[in-house]
Design a protein that fits this description.
By secondary structure, the protein is mostly helical. The chain is about 50% helix and about 10% strand. A two-stranded antiparallel ribbon has the order 1-2. A hairpin with a 7-residue loop joins strand 1 and strand 2.
Length: about 150
């Protein structure tokens, strides 16, 4: 995994300050490989990689998918023996969709900001309505002290 980190120039700041094991552990946390229900008896996997730069993330997913497929070919070759390499169509991995960039990478952040704006406006409106309806709950200022001796 470290070869991939070096080859794609990932985690440059972490590599300068952390141990090799810590950098690899971070990459493992940023990778997600999930089985997706396939059709017609085919298995599908979704590989995702979280990284601040989406272009680096795209290249990393492509490299991981290639490694995943290469390992499957090696496994299939061992399963059928060295005499004849025969890949069974039902168990062979193939790349169905290449690594792609998110269409709108800032959409999630904008949705959170918009939700906070709407929520804050609603809560503020309800608070103003409540205070207007229940004037006893509002704090009234004390009268100024009487000035004596004038």
């Amino acid at each position: 995994m470290y070869r991939l980190i070096e080859k794609l120039n990932l985690y440059t700041e972490d590599r300068a300050t952390k141990t090799l094991d810590q950098v690899i552990q971070r990459m493992k946390q940023d990778i997600r490989i999930a089985w997706v229900d396939g059709t017609a008896g085919l298995s599908r996997y979704r590989i995702t990689f979280t990284y601040p730069d989406r272009f680096y993330a795209q290249r990393t997913v492509a490299a991981l998918a290639t490694k995943f497929i290469d390992e499957d070919f090696k496994r299939q070759g061992k399963a059928y023996g060295a005499a004849r390499l025969r890949l069974d169509e039902a168990t062979r991995l193939e790349l169905l969709d290449t690594a792609s960039l998110p269409e709108n990478p800032g959409a999630a952040r904008r949705n959170i900001v918009f939700g906070g704006l709407v929520g804050g406006t609603l809560i503020g409106g309800l608070a103003a309505w409540w205070r207007k309806r229940n004037p006893a709950s509002t704090v009234t200022p004390a009268p100024p002290p009487a000035m004596s001796g004038i």
